[in-house]
Amino acid sequence: MDKKWVLREPISLEFKKQFPEIPGLILQLLYNRGLQSQKQIAGFLNPDYGQEILDPFLFPDMQKAVERIYQAVENKEKIVIYGDYDADGVTSTVLLADVLQKLGAKFIIYIPHREKEGYGLNKKTIKYLASKKVKLIITVDCAISNAPEVCLAAKKGIDVIITDHHSEPLVLPKAYAIINPKVKKCNYPTYDLAGVGVAFKLAQAIIAKDKNNIFGVGYEKWLLDLVAIGTVTDVMPLIGENRTLLKYGLIVLNKTKRIGLKLLAQKADIWPVTETELINSENIGYVLGPRLNAAGRMDHANSAYELLATEDAAEAQKLVESLEGNNQKRQKLTEKILLEIKNQVKDIEKQFLILADGKKWPLGVIGLAAGKIKDELNRPVIIISKMGRKVVGSGRSIDKFNMIAALNQIADCFANYGGHAGAAGFTLKSKTVLDDFKKRILQIAAKELKGKDLTPKLAIETELDLEDLNWELFDQIEKFEPFGTANPKPLFLVKSLKVENIRQVGTDNKHLKLFLKQEKMIKGFDAIGFGMGERVSEIKYGDTVDVVCEINLNEFNGSRKLELRLVDLKKALLSS
Fold first, then answer.
1. pLDDT digits (tens, 9 = 90+) for 491-518
2. CA nearest to 4, candidates 497, 548, 484, 513
3. pLDDT digits (tens, 9 = 90+) for 450-477
4. Is residue 380 within 8 Å of residue 374, measured between CB atoms?
5. How far is it, in rounded angstroms, from Cα 141 to Cα 198?
6. CATH 1.10.287.130 correct for 345-449
7. Of the CATH numbers 2.60.120.200, 3.30.2350.10, 3.90.1640.30, 3.40.1360.10, which one belongs to the domain with range 52-221?
8. What strand order describes the sheet that includes 134-140?
9. For residue 5, how many C-alpha atoms fall within 13 Å in the half-sphere facing its CB?
């Protein structure tokens, strides 16, 4: 689809005068991220662990939770860490297991099977754990929507400590303690912690109350490789405390002690690291994360947990091969489902909400498919899978449509559901409510989105003159790393570029390679448009184009040069 180019509001002269030492383009990038005070800017450009990482006891129930955990350890009670099957949930589980193991706690981990058991706590498992004399369940990345299950646990003599980051439901569980920044009563300053971020706050609090020096100085920072992975894979905003957690987490990740992580990165050709080739947030999002997620999507997330937890290199290597195979299967299946969805939905680009269903589409893959369609068409998407007597669904949404708020309006349709504004999952009460669900959710979407401009938009930071592009500017932009949600890699508008070379490159000519120059410039810049090869017919040698691009570093055979990474391009109006 054609995209609307939207330039961010330019900074004012008054704002420039406040920070005369900061170049205008860099100041614009800071302003675009809501950083408008000296303290905010300093904290962003130079995150300080001691200053930016908040006191975990700002959570009202944290003291109570920590005391209960130490009591369970002292009394040798059976503890269960109850996780989730995505990368955020798995890293949360490993992190808390590391801490409880160090404490000498008597614990097991339990990660439900995505399709057989579903998301969060379930009554059958609660009964099973009660039969095994479990006295304490600590959930990670789940259970805020499990009021009936938590009630059953209490009746069975099991205390439940919930650590989660999903939206507060209509009915809050009566748990022993709730640690969740999205619950109103918690009032924790960092609203958008990942599940692993919340688990880390609990770990921090446990470590802070360590009277016997079990953990030692600096122990908590060695947990940050896990925090980095979960924070990026769950697409959390990378500003404030999350940015600091990720910044330091990447330092730890690049010298991780976890043999499984090293071998997984090695299989993906991003290990061993060097001074110039370090693992970054992009590697987590596109390389490590999908492989860890593939375990729970295609089989069982236990294999991802075991990979991160094991200290045995031979076992880790087997697990890496398994995850790699599952990831390849996942990719092929996602493409197959995407094709089936596009064949099923008529006039797909005209829908307010794209709704499709199929038989036995794996629950772990339909969310991915929904996300891809949402990104492509800028529409909320719900994909439903009929699995025997069960009907499950996964949704992904856009800024203009709050997915969990929409589901709250039709809560009577669900056996269970949960999520947040941008993503949610559910199980219908029965097949008989499917048609009613479809009708009502489409009505809600039409009411909320009718008349709104749903053209996909490219948010452009500012206009760039190629004469200003040099190594000094590139180094200043690099200080914005790590990039991700709420701190995207900057997109620039560059106007009036003459096409001096154009060709298709890569397998099947998938990519577009250009050489571009602005008028009066002696030198030009290479530009690469990944996946844009078919657009070669739109332009020719000698045309003048406007482009939206990132600034990239191209390193090859020991040489380094700056290039433009194209995101979109249009013929300039002055082209002949």
1. 999 999 999 999 999 999 999 999 999 8
2. 548
3. 999 998 889 999 999 999 999 999 999 9
4. yes
5. 8
6. no
7. 3.90.1640.30
8. 106-110, 78-82, 134-140, 159-163, 177-179
9. 17
